[in-house]
Amino acid sequence: MVPLQTIKLPVIKRALVVGCGPAGLAAATGLAGAGIETILVEKADECGGMLRRLNRLEPEGIESKKLLDRMVEEAREVGVKFMLGTTIKDVSGFTGNFHVVLSNGVELDVGAIIVATGAKPYVPMEFNYGKDPRVLTTLDLESGKTVDGRNVAIINCVGSRTSGRGCSRYCCAVGLSKAIELRSQGKNVVLIYRDIMGVDPEVEDLYKKARDAGVLFIRIPRKAELTEAIRMDTNKLIVHDVELGDEVEVPFDNVILNIGLVPSEDTDEVSKVLRLSKDQEGFLMEAHPKLGPPVDTMTPPGIFIAGAARGGPKNVAEAIAEGYAAASRALMMLAQGYVTKEPFIPKFDWSKCTKCGLCIKACPYGAIRGVPGKWIEHIPAACQGCGACVAECPQDAITLDALSDDALWLRLRLPWLRSLRGR
Predict the structure, then answer these.
(1) Among residues of the chain, what percentage have pLDDT more than 90?
(2) Average of pLDDT values for 333-353?
(3) How many whole angstroms separate alpha carbon 2 and alpha carbon 254?
(4) CB of 98 within 8 A of CB of 333?
């Protein structure tokens, strides 16, 4: 038996944040404020992401522009370096030592990467959106478009809870807020919904306020497609009301579609460059949905995810919280200056190695590289100790002390030895 010892590997005390929305700004501010050199790259020519397209955040009632301006100002004050109009083209290396190539030609060596590429609004194809000028979205209202008609129908869950997509979480607060706003203008408002998902206590307050204001609520079947439960006629909607168990007619002058979020193209591009896992909807997946920190990724360690890009839609407060969470996880590694690897790292006997290259193909983490027949290199920092290379090597040139023949034999004998002691 060989004593097993942990391995310490140095890291580069510099971080890269991808995405300049609320999650990315929070992550960059947190790292830079702790003394870590931080570079923030953003594909667009200005920061903000979806936050830039909103007027007011609900249910908090905060003005989006003021919040965004303050976050950008704080990031600049702590020394965050901004690279706008820039994307990442290639990433190589391993935990604590990543080499990043940007679209502007700049090359960086960083110890940690935080991905906060956000999401994009769903573009409806339902209810003649884009063809009928009477049909608008909640984002259209945020952008300054007005509702001229007196009778207004708001339809929740457009682009959410359908076709494999989950709940967008923030939509109910937006729908209730818009209903209250339109009702205050003297309009007749009907809100059509599957469920009112009050993920925050404040949403329940909005719901009560909307009811008190005279907003009419109609619940449709949870599992029905919107276009099945709601049919659009010339000047009315024919809606299947669950409470009445029958169809009702809802006259309208305007229809407001309460839209959700879907994965952005930026998230898809970054996932390919960084080899990050995605869920069935296309959002980035954490290392484990139940165990471990929610902002860590499976491979490679040292890359973290936050905001709407991680796991799907969420409100701005949640995105900011996740940004700081990702920053704290990265800081734990960068501040101490090294990463600790468990002693499950294989050893190579280069005198036996014929450089056949089978281990390169077997390694799922890119921890072995080289040119078959010429040279082979093992990178301990990238290795996850899976043992695939050990099983693949035909020359027995690779061994894993923790799973050596002696170690396995001892494990098999231990129960027998213990039974002897008990006699």
Answers:
(1) 57
(2) 86
(3) 75
(4) no
Which value, to the nearest 10 degrees, does the dihedral of the CA atoms of residues 339, 343, 345, 349 take? 120
Higher pLDDT, 317 or 169: 317
Contacts of 370 (CB under 8 A, 6+ apart): 355, 357, 360, 376, 377
Between these two residues, 204 and 190, which has the higher pLDDT value?
190
In the predicted model, what is the mean pLDDT of residues 4-19?
88
Domain that holds residue 397: 347-421
Locate tokens 């009112």: which residue? Answer: 196
Q: Is 265 left (phi over 0), alpha (psi -120 to 50) or beta?
A: alpha
Tokens (6 digits) for 270: 């970054």
pTM for this structure?
0.85
Of 67 and 342, the one with more pLDDT: 67
Domain boundary among 258, 284, 310: 258
First to last CA, the chain: 27
CATH code, domain carrying 177: 3.50.50.60
Write down the pLDDT at residue 405.
67
Q: What is the pLDDT of residue 312?
A: 86
Q: Is residue 2 part of a domain?
A: no
> Which among 191, 198, 148, 144 is positioned nearest to 173, based on CA atoms?
198
Interhelix angle 64-77/22-33, rounded to 10 degrees, is 30
- Residue 399's nearest CA partner among 342, 343, 344, 348 is 348
Q: Is residue 202 part of a domain?
A: yes
- Domain end position, chosen among 340, 359, 394: 340
Q: Going by C-beta distance under 8 Å and a sequence separation of 6 or more, which residues neighbour residue 25?
A: 40, 47, 71, 72, 74, 75, 323
What is the residue-averaged pLDDT of the chain? 89
Of 7-21, 202-216, 378-392, where does mean pLDDT reach its minimum? Answer: 378-392
Q: Which of 201, 385, 244 is nearest to 216 (CA)?
A: 244
pLDDT reading at 59 higher than 80: no
Q: Are residues 138 and 251 in the same domain?
A: yes
What mean pLDDT do residues 88-110 have?
92
The backbone torsions φ and ψ at residue 61, rounded to the nearest 5 degrees and listed phi first, read 80, 20
CB environment 331-368: b (16+ within 10 A), e (fewer): bebbeeeebebeebbbebeeeeeebbbbbbebbebbbb
pLDDT for the residue 103? 93
Same domain, 160 and 249: yes
| Ramachandran bin of 15, using left for φ above 0, alpha for ψ from -120 to 50, beta for the remaining angles | beta
Query: What total of structural domains would you count in the chain?
Result: 3
Tally the C-alpha atoms within 13 A of residue 38's C-alpha that lie toward its C-beta: 30
